[in-house]
Amino acid sequence: MVFNTFQLGKGRQARREAQLDLTRRVLRQMGVARFPDGMMARALQHAPVLGSGTFGTCYRVQVYAASRPVHAAAKVFHGGNVRHALREASAYTRLADVPGVPRLLGVSVAPLCVVTTLHGPNTLMDAALCSGTPAVDLLAALHQVAGTVAAVHERSLVHNDLKFDNVLVSRAARTGALTATLIDLGAVQHVGARPYRGRNLSPDQYPYLAPEVLAGGPVSPGSDAFSLGWMLSGVVAMLPSSSRLGRGKALARHCMHPDPAQRPSVPALRDAIGSLLLSTS
User: Fold this and answer.
1) Domains of the chain: residue spans and CATH
2) Could you tell me the keywords of this UniProt record (predicted)?
């Protein structure tokens, strides 16, 4: 029995090594930089946690990029899920020239993690909960995010996880202007994919996901528009009572229409948010 258990353990280890070797080959084919095995294990020692989600936990680490030390975000995947890691690395690669998306610095296979440029330090949720943040600044950040999402859609991809916690914001030292960065590409899918088919997700648990997606239907630019509308509804509720408040609420309702064909395109939504911004300045 001891012998059989030992052999079983060796078989499992061999399968895992074969999977990691395949991962290395795929990354090489993708042209993605790879950190030497073990290097990120040292970087992750005592590294502070930035946040945790469905697929992994993010840490603030220091790595070398372009021959100099830089602070970065390392996402370590729960259970060493290779499929999720490769999908996220592929999304960062395809969106490498999109403003408002972190840049991929490389992937570590052992331990399995995706390393990107560091942004923030606060989420849009942090900013929304801070009483000192003007609502117009939140609106400006959402305008930037809509522009980023529109560029994602141009590549036939859907972010599929748009919410306040997946937007990082920072302020320019000189002007005080807010810069928004869209993070967490772990749920990115091609247009038409059905990632939640058979899952029967609850709208109470995922209020930011479109009803057709919750029901297992295909993701689309319209489903991202729904999520942006959900975020917009929270932001406009903080605006002072005026005609623009009514316009903002109407726009959010339009985005969250049950029929995805009736929702505005994300570029149209971005322009409408820009119009709201002009009326608040």
Assistant:
1) 12-117 (3.30.200.20), 122-278 (1.10.510.10)
2) ATP-binding, Kinase, Nucleotide-binding, Serine/threonine-protein kinase, Transferase
